Here is the input.
Amino acid sequence: MSKIDPNTQPTASADGEITLPFSVGTLLAVAPLMVLGLIMLCIYFSGAIQMLLAERELNDYEHKSRALKYLDWALSVNPSLARAYGKRAQLRLELEQDKGPRADFSAARGDIERALKLIPDDFFFTSTNLDIDHASHDYKKEIADCSNLIQANPNINSNYEQRANAYYITGDTYNERMDRQTLIDRASEDEIDFAARGKQLIFEGRFDEAMRDYESALQKDPSQGNVYDKLARLYENSNLPSDAVATYTKIIEMARRNPDDYQFDADSAHFRRANLYLKLGNYEKALADADALVEYDKDCPHRRAFRAKILDTIGRHSAATADRKLAMERVNSDINRLPNNQDADSKAEAYVFRAGYYEAEEQWSKALSDYKIALSVKPDANSYNNCAKMYTRLGNYDQAIEYFSKAITAQPDNDDLETAYNGMAEAHLAQHKPQLAIEDCTKCIKLGLENAEASHLRARAHRELGHDREAQFDDNEAKGLEFSPLPDIG
Here is the structure.
């Protein structure tokens, strides 16, 4: 047994008081460090530190994968951290969406279900849950989840809108229109939300009323750039080109006054206004818009191709030739610099760039030749789609359909898949096979990507079959999603 050193033990003074082996001052000095350590341990095991690190990776660096690791860490120390489950569900959803049809949303689904179990009424969690329903194409569950949320809180309009979109995808146009009407009624109450009501009126096919609402919305608040664009597209779809021109002019003026306000897309406005001027026979104004596009980006060959086309239309062929010469020098420069050992991605990119110029010039055979070279070095879904589109332009619809089919099986992302289905529908329409076109468009619409062009093409197919009611529903949907075919040139 070890001996006790009396010098290290508390001793009693003559009056019975206990004397400690260290000073009170030492205790007071160490105590804050001990308290701080306890606080840090509590924070660590609460997951707060890891959540802060995850948010820093997202907000400062946009590193989703690193943020995901910090969320895993947070949940390993605190398995009851609802916020971490919700954020991880959202991140897993976004990462899987990038994979296109190969996506697996089961992990995201598991996370959001855990988050909702911990906090059932959290708005962020319920919104993410609906996004997962939509991304995984589980539209019946999306409708059921929206219905439950509406029953619990009937005042949130976004739930009605999301359910209406899901009803359309599943073909339940009756219930879709019921939800649209609810939104119209809501927007009409008290202080009218003209922009919100106008958006829903388009889905109902009430275009004149929608135009009046958008006009009223802009009188109330002229800074709404997205409303100008919606109104201009609605004018185009309603065969009111002069009104569309005036609205695009307003967008261009607003962009000039507010150059840092990105909701005013002057580039798009110049391009669409130029096409409308051509349609109206106002060639000099169309050329002025093309000049503005080239001035903004002098090195872009596609803009020069557009201006050359206008110059030819108004008989200024020498100027058009000069533009084409400059454009060709630009598109050839990347190809001429390619070494023999150039990597596949760079080589494909150079040939796709030149093919895009040929496409803008409507030189379909040359574009196809370059797209095929790109396909030979990088056989992906986008390359198959590019070749297929050129076969369509050349009238070789069987080849186009074959290449679109190859794009669908080449592990496409969502955009490639959408392009392939819409492209096949267009080829089938050209072959006067509207039923096949409907099947293609329906597959595209069921991707749930707001496929406005698919709705437009399916409307054409229904109309060819004499299905006027179905065609009208699809037309209204396309216009409600702001789809407007590019005005004809010339």
